[in-house]
Amino acid sequence: MGSHGELGGLARKSQDVGDVLAASGKDIVLYETVGVGQSEHDIVKAADVSIVVLVPESGDEVQMMKAGLIEIADLFIINKSDRDGADRLSSMLKNVLHSFNPEGKIEPPIFNTVGTEGVGIKELYRGIFDHVDSMIGLGQLDKRRLARYRQRVSALVRETLEDSFWTDDKKELLYKVTKTSDSITDAPHIMAEALLGNTDEE
Which of these three, 47, 63, 84, is where a domain ends? Predict the structure, then answer.
């Protein structure tokens, strides 16, 4: 499913589709985001395990990697690890993980693969399930699923309320006072209060 510009890296209905697949008996559902370097944090709200895939050419990318990305990654894969620079990337990534890994979080393991040749795939497969077992043992998986459920309910309530709030009259009022920069006379929070007051009158 195309993300269609969604900032979180996933299409809005990706989680719903994942629910359908899980309900149909699929034990494993894979989501692929639009990629590292963009806003990929929605994947945490959708998946039990988040995996970041890098290639040897990602060295500069790792140096600029934000702590936020380190926090959401459960595992790292260095694909195309037969290329020059793979060892350097692995060493660099380990240093970054050591610097940013939050206390109490399982340090993300790093796997080297060559996808086109199947190298490292079996080790990765076992590593994913070993990591899940560790999360279960520490109570992290259940905690993550509960948090995800709360977030999804909150998001759906917010979307529903926002959709019902923006009537044609309210949109017209907002556009009317934002025709030009000179036409804006109130601070954003005052305008928001006016729109909310308009709701009470309705």
Answer: 47
The answer to whether residues 31 and 65 belong to one domain is no
Residue pLDDT, tens place only, 21-80: 989 999 898 888 765 544 556 677 788 998 988 888 876 666 556 656 677 788 999 999
Do 148 and 161 belong to one domain? yes
The reply to whether 10 and 66 lie within a common domain is: no
For residue range 181-196, what is the model confidence (pLDDT) as tens digits? 888 888 999 989 988 8
The domain in which residue 179 lies consists of 166-202
Out of 34-38, 171-175, 197-201, pick the least confident: 34-38
Which structure tokens are listed for 120? 């490292």
* Residue 37 sits in the same domain as residue 57: no
